[in-house]
Amino acid sequence: MHITQVESEHQRGTLVASLRGAVIASCQAGPESPLNTPAILASLALSAELGGAQGFRVDGPANVAAIRQVSPLPIFGINKVDRDGYDVRITSTLADALDVVAAGANLVALDGTQRERPFGETLAQIIAGLHAVGVPVMADISTQAEARAAVDAGADMVGTTLAGYTPYTEELDRFGPAFGLLAEIRDLPVPVVVEGRIWTTDHIAACFAGGAYALIIGSAITVPELITRRFVTAARQAQAQRGAVSA
Ligand SMILES: CC(=O)N[C@H](C=O)[C@@H](O)[C@H](O)[C@H](O)COP(=O)(O)O
């Protein structure tokens, strides 16, 4: 249902304001993951909520609907679809975005880069389509220029999600959050969300000290394969060091 511009601004502003300082759990599982079913992702989300998470980032209508059934917390819906000929993947069309809204998402996160989108849609058109139904938009970006363009296109928030993952930022250090990009965009007129590669409490302190408005944490909360691998790798390194000392 379309609402007036004033109603939309009020609705979006209230929701964004409620997320200041939040830790949002990204509850996603790759196609190869044993956790990749809506019911299991809903349980993961509930566990994160018990731990104090204040919202979720969720991929696809089925997973959004399952989590909406178990929690009233804000959901950033995304809709990852691979389409031949396009590099954009995270919620690349307005129809993909509206599908996760219909499933229960309160906000939409989408690829906020300047790359070409299917059906010739522009970032500004997709954002306007979501604003027409009162839904705030977080633009996932990889550079300062993209962040500025996303703000000009109407984005309510920007997220550092794609730093290091676009072909032209692949040279960036992929260990730890995108602190360099955060420093470049912290003074934008919209909230900046640090998303991706947050693994330690020191990271969290540094993100907020660096101007982050909220954080989205995925793997370190909801991907046991990667959590386990981190500990196993540390164990192997410790053993190798002990071996080197005693040899
Ligand atoms: C680059 C990209 O497509 N990132 C995706 C965005 O939805 C997810 O795969 C990440 O898990 C998410 O950004 C959270 O990051 P991390 O799992 O590092 O906390």
From TrEMBL:
Pathway per the UniProt entry: Amino-sugar metabolism; N-acetylneuraminate degradation; D-fructose 6-phosphate from N-acetylneuraminate: step 3/5
Catalytic class of the enzyme: isomerase
Matching InterPro entries: Aldolase_TIM (IPR013785), NanE (IPR007260), RibuloseP-bd_barrel (IPR011060)
Gene3D superfamilies the record matches: Aldolase class I
Pfam families on file: NanE (PF04131)
GO biological process: N-acetylmannosamine catabolic process; N-acetylneuraminate catabolic process
Record keywords: Carbohydrate metabolism, Isomerase
The enzyme's E.C. designation: 5.1.3.9
Recorded coiled-coil stretches: none
GO terms for MF: N-acylglucosamine-6-phosphate 2-epimerase activity
SUPFAM superfamilies the record matches: Ribulose-phoshate binding barrel
Origin superkingdom: Bacteria
Keyword check for Isomerase: yes
Catalytic activity line of the entry: an N-acyl-D-glucosamine 6-phosphate = an N-acyl-D-mannosamine 6-phosphate
Entry GO CC: cytosol
Job of this protein: Converts N-acetylmannosamine-6-phosphate (ManNAc-6-P) to N-acetylglucosamine-6-phosphate (GlcNAc-6-P).
Cited PANTHER family: N-ACETYLMANNOSAMINE-6-PHOSPHATE 2-EPIMERASE-RELATED (PTHR36204)
Similarity field: Belongs to the NanE family.
UniProt name for this protein: N-acylglucosamine-6-phosphate 2-epimerase
Organism listed in the record: Pengzhenrongella frigida
